[in-house]
Design goal:
Elements (H helix, E strand, L loop, with lengths): L1 E5 L6 E2 L3 H14 L15 H11 L6 H18 L6 E2 L3 H9 L4 E6 L4 H10 L9 E2 L7 H16 L9 E5 L2 H9 L3 E5 L6 H6 L4 E3 L6 H9 L3
Parallel strand pairs: 1-4, 1-6, 4-5, 6-7, 7-8
Antiparallel strand pairs: 2-3
Length: 229
């Protein structure tokens, strides 16, 4: 079996800024921060890393209790914001997922900085969640490389008893951080320029495959099929 792990934001979907809006509303509600710092980046990072940096930036103690308070309050905010945000499923995504679903040697999972409940909320809103059976998420890890390891472990647990061989892993994402975390688990790195980075920025991170969007999936599908040939 070959495991194909997808990032969410900027790779599968654009949410029209729903996640950032939900972050801002949650920090306002919980901590009285009227406007979160624009110096804290979101692209390619885990929810935990973003929340903890925002806490430090705004003088809030970074504790497991404050992180738990944040995640509890964040999810309902996100669910409220998604329907009023102008988001979309990105080009080629549905067609690629349809094609991969026909391949018996492919298992589809997620590798995302979103907390698990946030990933479910976003993908359910865009009717994609049921496509994925396992994943690595940003609940417990600030570092995306650690999330990649967790995603790989989840894949192996999911496939236990159903696969007689491991033909490798593909990671698909839209930022240099996705390429780096693919390297952390010796995966084939596919970079798509539909989100947080330009083609030139992605090329500088040296992915195995670089595409403008996922309508251009021929080389990816060729790789997925060649590994078991």
């Amino acid at each position: 079996m070959i495991t194909v792990l997808f990032d969410i934001d900027g790779t599968l979907i654009q949410t029209g800024g729903a996640g950032k809006i939900a972050f801002a509303e949650t920090f306002r509600e919980l901590f009285g921060i009227e406007q979160i710092s624009s110096n804290v980046g979101f692209a390619g990072r885990s929810d935990r890393a973003i929340a903890e940096e925002l806490m430090r930036t705004h003088g809030i103690e970074v504790t497991s209790q404050n992180w738990q308070r944040f995640t509890t309050a964040f999810l309902p905010r996100l669910e409220q914001v998604l329907p009023r945000s102008a988001g979309e499923v990105l080009p080629g995504v549905v067609e690629l997922l349809d094609e991969l679903a026909t391949l018996p040697h492919v298992a589809l999972g997620l590798l995302t900085g979103n907390i698990a409940a946030g990933a479910r909320a976003k993908l359910s809103h865009y009717r994609l969640f049921e496509r994925f059976r396992f994943g690595g998420y940003g609940d417990d890890w600030a570092d995306r490389n650690d999330i990649a390891v967790a995603a790989l472990q989840a894949a192996r647990l999911h496939l236990n008893g159903t696969a007689d061989r491991d033909d490798g892993v593909v990671v698909i994402g839209d930022t240099p951080a996705d390429i780096r975390c693919a390297r952390a688990i010796n995966a084939y790195a596919v970079a798509v320029a539909t989100g947080g980075a330009t083609l030139d920025q992605l090329a500088a991170a040296e992915p195995d495959l670089l595409v403008a969007d996922l309508t251009d999936s021929r080389d990816l599908l060729q790789h997925v099929n060649s590994v078991i040939a």
